[in-house]
């Protein structure tokens, strides 16, 4: 999604933010960091930007009132883009605001980096960007150095692994009126992690082809996996077949149309109406826009294909992977053994 081959790190301010609930405090630096070592500068660029290479979702700033100017990060970013001289002072304000947003007792203290980048490429455009990054996880490292007659072994505690960025966001200087384009990284996957996206940044997903493709596949998977049983008696093998058919549709088509998808994939009129009702309710609740045709994103299909399981698990003895024609597998019940069975047809073993 992004390329940083030509990117340069222009400004960097570093602060430390504690957990307010734990009576920890913040420490603010007096001035931006002066990075004279070019190797260190390149390592920082890699540390900050590498995790975003595989990110696809693009977000926008939002606010519950509808007034973007009330979103603190939107406000601070706008000032930074318009007045570079205010960068460091505004970075201190961002650190204070993150401290006020750290209201979960499990949020870890850590260093906060506010960076200004030039010439980042996003969706084919060369853009300036502001990066906000937080490192929470510390590790110990061994250091081996040569000395007369052999080697010396030492260690460094509480060091930062530059391969593991805990949290980060990139705010691109474009589409300001819509809330900028923002990309997000949060590697923690903890229940308290929502504070970064929801409380601190206040982001909403951009409703583009990637998000619509990703969301539609997610809604359909939820319908087949959890909802369809409420109205229909359907086997797990048939569920897997319906999931496989949907993935085939998204891989072969260039655009999504709800009516076409329903007719080609679901086929059963009553099940079609049930899915459309389920989809309408999702649209009304989240304003997702899935009822209108949209271009299919190959990246989103690839992402979802990892979680579309085609495996039928039978007790603890067998797993059957179903990839093709469901007519070649039959389910039955053996009265003598009082057990269910599947009959599978095939031409040759491989």
- Structure class: alpha+beta
Instruction: Provide the gyration radius in Å.
Output: 26 Å
**Poorly predicted spans:** none
Question: SSE order in H/E notation?
Answer: EEEHEHHEEEEEEHEHHEHHEHEEEE
Global outline:
globular
Residues in β-strands, percent: 25-35%
In helices, the fraction of residues equals 25-40%
Total of DSSP H or I helical runs spanning 4+ residues? 9
End-to-end CA span: 39 Å
Count the E strands: 17
Main beta-sheet strand count, sense and barrel state: 7 strands, antiparallel
Q: Taking all residues together, what is the mean pLDDT?
A: 90
What's the short story on this structure?
This protein has 350 residues and is of the alpha+beta class.
Features:
350 residues, alpha+beta, seven-stranded antiparallel beta sheet, two-stranded antiparallel ribbon, 9 helices, globular
Model description:
The model has no long low-confidence stretch (mean pLDDT 90). Strands 1, 2, 3, 5, 6, 9 and 10 form a seven-stranded antiparallel sheet that branches. The two termini are 39 Å apart. Helices cover 33% and strands 28% of the residues. Strand 14 (311-314) and strand 15 form a beta hairpin. The longest helix has 19 residues, at 209-227. The protein is built from nine helices and 17 strands. It has 350 residues and is α+β, with helices and mostly antiparallel strands.
